[in-house]
Amino acid sequence: MTGWVYLMTNKTHGTLYVGVTSNLRRRAFEHRSGQYDSFSRRYGLKHLVLYEEYPDIRLAIQREHNIKHWPRDWKIDLINKANPEWADLYEDLSF
To answer: How far apart are the two ends of the chain, measured CA to CA in Å?
Structure first.
């Protein structure tokens, strides 16, 4: 099963959330709509600024675990390299 690691934020260089899912489009929609009383809802994390696809969900889970333990600056660097504008990538999801 394919897995996705993703980062959500509320604004450029704002609060970050790192997550993992097997259905990125659905999960990003859940964040955007604030469906759950959670960290992402509390901080308004509605902008998908980075995602990575993995052929096996177990690899995605390991990557998420690693990124969650990174210093904040490393996460910001990761986003800046892939998405320097910090554009919301949700509308680009075509799968």
So the answer is: 15
| Rounded CA Rg of the chain | 12
Domain that holds residue 11: 3-92
Output the pTM of the full model: 0.94
| Cβ within 8 Å of residue 89, ≥6 positions away | 48, 49, 50, 51, 83
Paired tokens of 62 = 């390991």
Residues 29-53 have pLDDT tens digits of 999 998 877 888 899 999 999 999 9
What proportions of the chain, in percent to the nearest 5, are helix, strand and coil?
40, 20, 35
Count up the domains in the chain and report the number: 1
Q: Are 75 and 67 in contact (CB under 8 A)?
A: yes
Token pair 């919301």 is found at 88
